[in-house]
Amino acid sequence: MHHQWLLLATCFWVIFMFMVASKFITLTFKDPDAYSAKQEFLFLTTAPDAGRSLRETHFPEELKLTGKMLPGGRLVQPLVYMQRLELVRNVCREDTLRNLSHTAVSKFVLDRIFVCDKHKILFCQTPKVGNTQWKKVLIVLNDGLWITRSFSSLSSCPQKQLKFKDLNVDTGMAHGERGPGLRDGHLSLKAASPTRPLPVCLPGAFPSIEEIPESVVHDHEKNGLPRLSSFSDAEVQKRLKTYFKFFIVRDPFERLISAFKDKFVHNPRFEPWYRHEIAPGIIRKYRRNRTETRGIQFEDFVRYLGDPNHRWLDLQFGDHIIHWVTYVELCAPCEIKYSVIGHHETLEDDAPYILKEAGIDHLVSYPTIPPGITAYNRTKVEHYFLGISKRDIRRLYARFEGDFKLFGYQKPDFLLN
Fold it and tell me: Which of 46, 231, 310, 402 could form a disulfide with 235 if both were Cys (CB 3.0 to 4.6 A apart)?
């Protein structure tokens, strides 16, 4: 009898421990934090790689694998941005590509980098990759232009809330501007106080970031954006080492198409030299059919860019070549350690991420991106390269191969073979 009771007690104890263990396991997997952590781990281990496994990728300690939530509830992992930086470092180490991936940090490069000292940001401009919109962002951050709402009393004029500290109390002048409370350019100090902002009409203000005209953005005497080349060598090095640095890239061939369309087909009225000076120079050198009288064709443009001896024309064209030279020549990615490299094709995710990483997402937003405008368009690329000889396309690729490999763009075999 004693043994029977002992056996029964042992069975009850085993059943009890099993129930406790089952309850513990159930509670653990129902815990929201434990579940989300598990999901994040699964995401990181199954994310698409850039041609090699994550075990083969060694990331610097300062880059953390933490998820970030963007507006709309989308979770973007910085893993993709780390992979982009790691790819650049790996390609920079390839001796066979050294001539296509390295360049000196010359005045030409420093001229391409815009500075926002107020928020410790450096932006390297890469034309035809949303560059204009990023410059608008920096202009606003630098207080070069004011973006404010219009008051109903003066709906035709953009407004700024002018605070008491902005006024010149001795003379009663408010930066020489005219608006409510201003008479002949003078401010009535009764209209403002340290606790009462005054709405003032400012010619340099715009109702939204989208409405800043390109003619203002690209006028470097008006936009208030200093270039890195304007600082001393010591100040340049200080900023390169400590500031947040970024630039944006795009499929190299699609960027060339965009540059050709913008500068030689549409041709903004404030940039007549592309059509009237640069185009004739390219035609004289690279037009095969001398009896052809049409304006510059994309074939002429491709032949010029793929010519190993293109530099003698580049020297004549000056800084205008920034719209079609390589990203390597513009931003020196192997010499400058950038914080983030954005891609035009994923700008809807990259722009908010860059603003957040730079610590300015609470101050400014990237201008609205029209649906589908950033997507890679293979049909358009095929259309533009239709009829261009394989020899000329291969020479063009040979020049831009560094850009393709540094930033993970696929070799356009559908054009080359």
Answer: 231
Whole-number Å distance between alpha carbons of 113 and 125: 6
pTM of the model: 0.71
Nearest to 356 by CA among 39, 147, 142, 121: 121
C-alpha–C-alpha distance, residues 166 and 174, integer Å: 7
Given a contact cutoff of 8 angstroms between Cβ atoms, the answer to whether 228 and 113 are in contact is yes
Measured CA distances, 206 to 158, 188, 309 (Å): 6, 25, 45
* CA–CA separation, 278 and 280 (whole Å): 6
Higher pLDDT, 246 or 198: 246
pLDDT tens by residue, 43-93:
232 333 333 333 333 434 333 334 455 555 454 558 999 999 999 999 999
Partners of 168 in beta bridges:
173
Size (the chain), residues: 417
How many Å apart are CA 296 and CA 280, to the nearest integer? 7
Say which amino acid occupies 389.
Answer: S
Dist CA 402 CA 252 (whole Å): 10
Q: Say whether 21 sits in a helix, a strand or coil.
A: helix
Q: Phi-psi region for residue 175, left (φ > 0), alpha (ψ -120 to 50) or beta?
A: left
Whether the CB-CB separation of 174 and 162 falls below 8 Å is answered with yes
Q: Which two tokens stand for residue 147?
A: 């973006």
188: helix, coil or strand? Answer: coil
Q: How far apart are CA 92 and CA 327, in angstroms?
A: 13
The CA dihedral of 38, 41, 46, 48, to the nearest 10 degrees, is 140
- Dihedral over alpha carbons 145, 150, 151, 156 (to 10 degrees): 100
Q: Are strands 205-206 and 146-147 parallel, antiparallel or unpaired?
A: parallel
* DSSP assignment letter at 174: S
How far apart are alpha carbons 213 and 230 in whole angstroms?
25
Question: pLDDT of 323-357, one tens digit each?
Answer: 999 999 999 999 999 999 999 999 999 999 999 99
Q: What is the DSSP letter of 285?
A: H
* Amino acid identity at 164: F
Beta carbons within 10 angstroms of residue 190's beta carbon: 7
- Model confidence pLDDT, tens digit, residues 100-153: 999 999 999 999 999 999 999 999 999 999 888 999 899 888 875 555 433 333
pLDDT per residue over 278-299, tens digit each? 999 999 999 988 788 889 999 9
